[in-house]
Specification:
Order of helices and strands: EHEHHEHHEHEHEEH
Structural class: alpha/beta
Mean pLDDT: 87
Strand order of the largest sheet: 3-2-1-4-5
Low-confidence stretches: none
Number of strands: 7
Number of helices: 8
Strand content: 5-15%
CATH architecture: 3-Layer(aba) Sandwich
CATH superfamily: HUPs
């Protein structure tokens, strides 16, 4: 572990590839790690069903990880889904919107996730909130940008009169590098766990198994994951 070993982290954990790598990253660095998931009425709610298996699988990979992995929490934000007219919360086609953003963008989602995580972290004694946001290889969501996260970190710390760090270990790496980081942190066993148990597909499809995992294979999330995995394999990582 690093100099962060004495701190406690709370990982925003969806059950997808990115948040799983972030969980591994946190388990390698912090003395205590808890997880929090969010049910906002997402159409791909199957991701929430993957979370327990992923957590159990990660604990089985390393006794030290098992010792550091603390409780899981679930926060329900039904109102977010009710006010969002998006392809993740309604039966809407996945396409580019008039604003230049894909219709999978849920306005305010990451802002709310971190704010609720901070409220939970305040009570649980977690100083570090970890999220899988990335602006290197992503769908263009404005609440995934580093500037957004930095501003939110300042606002949360000021508003709660408590210093929080919003850590985004994937911010400046692409999907291929995310696969590589998984292997670096947990070896082939973690890569296999991500393939078999995590879920990223926006359509919630787990009927089709690909080299990179389960999904429809055509939505933006599947395309990103597949492209990154292909580059990871091609590099011989």
């Amino acid at each position: 572990m690093t100099e962060s070993a004495g701190k406690k982290a709370l990982v925003l954990f969806s059950g997808g590839q990115d948040s799983t790598v972030c969980l591994a990253w946190a388990l390698a660095r912090f003395a205590e790690v808890e997880t929090v998931g969010f049910d906002y009425g997402q159409s791909h709610a199957v991701e929430l069903e993957c979370r327990d298996k992923v957590r159990a699988g990660m604990a089985a990979l390393d006794p030290a990880w098992a010792a550091r992995l603390g409780p899981d929490h679930m926060i329900r934000l039904a109102e977010l889904g009710q006010v969002s007219e998006t392809a993740l919360t309604r039966d809407v086609e996945i396409e580019m919107g008039e604003n230049g953003l894909p219709t999978t963008f849920v306005p305010g989602r990451n802002l709310l996730f971190f704010t609720y995580a901070a409220a939970l972290g305040y009570r649980r004694g977690a100083q570090v909130l970890v999220g899988g946001m990335c602006e290197t290889d992503y769908s263009g969501y404005p609440d995934c940008r580093a500037d957004t996260i930095k501003a939110l970190e300042a606002a949360i710390s000021l508003g709660m009169d408590k210093s929080f760090t919003l850590a985004t270990p994937l911010m400046w790496i692409d999907k291929a590098a995310t696969w590589s980081l998984a292997k670096e942190l947990g070896g082939e066993a973690l890569v296999d766990l991500i393939i078999e148990e995590t879920h990223s597909c926006y359509r919630g499809d787990r009927s089709q198994r690909h080299d990179w995992g389960y999904g429809c294979g055509t939505c933006p999330a599947c395309e990103l994951r597949a492209r990154g995995h292909a580059a990871f394999v091609a590099a011989g990582a």
